[in-house]
């Protein structure tokens, strides 16, 4: 296991280095001079241009500039937003938890709804029930997330007025953003009706979460169904039936665990999809997450915010992917044995 941890540490370090190099190169790829990209200032003369070049070390070689960039990253100096004038590290640490909170709630629905329905469909493979569930999941998977979000807004917010149209919580609640996670901040807040704040926050969360979870749940149903069908055709299942075990015993002792093992690596892909869809949905619901923040940076041409936001999101996705793969190795030791034999 130590060897695996060391291998993944090297992999994460190299991936993070590559992402940092890509983020650094954006100042030369954006449609503006590097000095304007970093400062938001268009030099009016050669003297001002040279002064800004010296201040931001743009006269040095690319390697020296990249080394300075890495040192600033690890020091926590991510630059300043050209629009708000606030440190980018503070703005990202407030926007990113909102996206994580939205994606985590959506992932909870995906697991709670998608896996049981997938198991139910797989156990009744090629029946009328299976065809119905599979048809609905295929249709749901084909629906664009932005179209679904607009449909939810038109129906449940504008037509019936059941749920809030936008935002994260009613402006009447003054919740200081201590952690960035609204539910935790409500618990930490003082002089606030916590029950009412929780209720209002959940109402604001329903439509964005359902919009994100809808497509991923459909995908999880199909993945789980396929895995259940594959396991049911294994020889050890036939042997278990020949021993006289009941269908319930076979499912919980043999089918479920072996069917879930191939699903775990695919969950990393689902989380990536969830975060991507969350960044799209945030704009429609005015959710103050990293996606909405990046869109505003694009509109306002805040290139410094763009490159740091992209780096933060990419790093988060890589960390989650590696964490899920490590968890999969912990619960499935046979995978490590197989790899050691093939190597």
From TrEMBL:
Presence of the UniProt keyword Transport in the record: yes
Domain ABC transmembrane type-1 per the UniProt entry, residue ranges: 96-328
Q: Does the keyword Transmembrane helix apply?
A: yes
Q: One Pfam family this chain carries?
A: BPD_transp_1
Membrane topology, as annotated:
Multi-pass membrane protein
Record GO terms (molecular function)? dipeptide transmembrane transporter activity
Record-annotated membrane-spanning stretches? 92-117, 138-162, 201-221, 259-285, 305-327
Q: Which SUPFAM superfamilies match?
A: MetI-like
Name under which the protein is recorded = Peptide ABC transporter permease
Native source organism of the sequence:
Alteromonas alba
